[in-house]
Amino acid sequence: MTVAIDPSGAAGSPDDEKPAQDTPPAAGVASGDDGFWVEPGADGEAGAPAPAESEVAETVVRDAREFGVYARTGGWAFALKVARSVRPGGQPAGQSPKISAKRFAELAGCSAERVMRYYKAWDKAADDGLVPHFEILVPGQEIELPDSDVWHDYYTSRSGAASERGTAIAAAAEAEGIRPTKALEVAENPTALRAAILADPATAGTARAALLDRLKEDPVLQTELARDIARTDELKKAVATESRAADRIGYVRQIAEKGQVRTPAGQTIDAPPELRAEAERHLSLIDELDDGEEAGTWATEAYDSVRELVVQAVEADPELRLKERRTKFYSGLQRATKVFEELTLDDVDNLDDLYEDDMLQRLEELQTAIGTCIATLRKAVPAQP
Description:
By secondary structure, the chain is mainly α. Helices cover 59% and strands 2% of the residues. A hairpin with a 5-residue loop joins strand 1 and strand 2. Helix 6 (164-176) packs across helix 7, helix 11 packs across helix 12 (273-287) and helix 11 packs across helix 13. 13% of the residues are buried. The model is unreliable at 1-48 (pLDDT under 50).
């Protein structure tokens, strides 16, 4: 962009160098027709008149005007230079003064890939009717350019954006309402992402939430994460603690929402009104916790409270207490039966290698206990008519 300077300003009289008497524009208002923003106080003390354009070096004026163009249009200003100077695909050399993207890159001192990213951005915008097609433009031609805000809708600075992976990232970014270039930049800098997660709890929280969302649809990631947890003692303990808290909260929620409760022996009974009210009270406190608050203590307190009320309810009802004891006995008997069914000596080749005095003693004591139990129960057998 060349600015013509009046040569009379260089050899004029002192009177010619006096600034015009027109009222200067207010600070912060565009001056003349250039459309440039005049920053208050940028040229010295407030209220001082700006130097006439003829008093400014031509190179400075050119830089200022090109800066103004870029401020308004962003990358479109550079894309235009490519669009009007680079031959469209398939057009042979010699039919126009335009040159190849490779030659243009050599003259610009950059890579041909970078030139082609601007070329492709212009091509997409031309297909949308936002700018003229390449064939219409000629070298040096000036046109009205689109606003800078839409530039990033067409341009990507990442070559990986054209890949299947880049396309998926770009689509996800658009769904989240952010520019694809931002997401692609993060994806191509995993070390920077790791550093941000390690240093910033907020970033780590965002990453955790994103992983949880992805886990729902990624079985491979589910397996890998489960394996990582199983191999890390600290994570295993944390998972066990959270699982226990979740089970206890589920126990309380079952009482509050469905009005049913499991007794210590395993019976499912209708919860008394006072028990359900206590469960609802604890559950409301737990539901009011923020996402970051620890629920373990609250879960333990709620579980212990309602559990004690369950025991009291069972003991207060003779029929229920009898069923509880019968259920408990049957449960223990079933467990013991299963254990003894699994015990066998059939696969032992040499009993001498297996035998220990303590084994035989324990079995004899158990046999005595079982005999006593059988004799006691036989006393309760109804007499046969």
